Amino acid sequence: MMILRSILLVGIGGGIGCVLRYLIGVVVGRHFQASWPLATFMVNMTGCLLIGLLAGWLGRLGTNAAELRLLLVTGFCGGFTTYSAFALENVQLLQSGHAGLAVAYVAASIIGGILLVWAGMWMMR
């Protein structure tokens, strides 16, 4: 029963985060003409600030915040932008003294992600 509750919390939070990300894209697209993906940038930066605030707050609450963490961090922030989770993981690597691993993770994620998008598009030609 506990796993079902966890899935529901993540799903509810994720659904709300996805809808909010979409709405921000619509609003920004209507009001701003930018030569770069402004809506995605805004969502990613907002998500990073939010996941930092939540991680700090939930960290102070301790183990009693497990369900809130699932709803807000894994669910909402994950649905809003996975970039925030990526940024939080890198901060945690740096804080635990793994700077080299953090740099490798950033490089592999960015370079690998771009190459795999290109590869996927190339394969579908």
Walk me through this protein's architecture.
The structure is a single chain. The chain has 125 residues and is mainly α. The protein is built from five helices and no strands. Helix 1 runs parallel beside helix 3, helix 3 packs across helix 4 (82-95) and helix 4 packs antiparallel against helix 5 (99-123). The chain starts with a helix and ends with a helix. 14% of the residues are buried.
Structural class label:
mainly alpha
Q: State the order of secondary-structure elements, H for helix, E for strand.
A: HHHHH
Uncertain residue ranges? none
Roughly what is the average pLDDT, rounded to an integer? 93
> What is the count of helical runs?
5
How many strand segments?
Answer: 0
Largest beta-sheet details: none
Short structural summary:
The protein is built from five helices and no strands. By secondary structure, it is mainly alpha-helical. The relative contact order is 0.12.
Outline the secondary-structure elements.
Elements: H1 2-31, H2 38-61, H3 66-80, H4 82-95, H5 99-123
Helix pairs in contact: 1-2, 1-3, 2-3, 2-4, 3-4, 4-5
Keywords:
125 residues, mainly alpha, 86% helix, 0% strand, globular
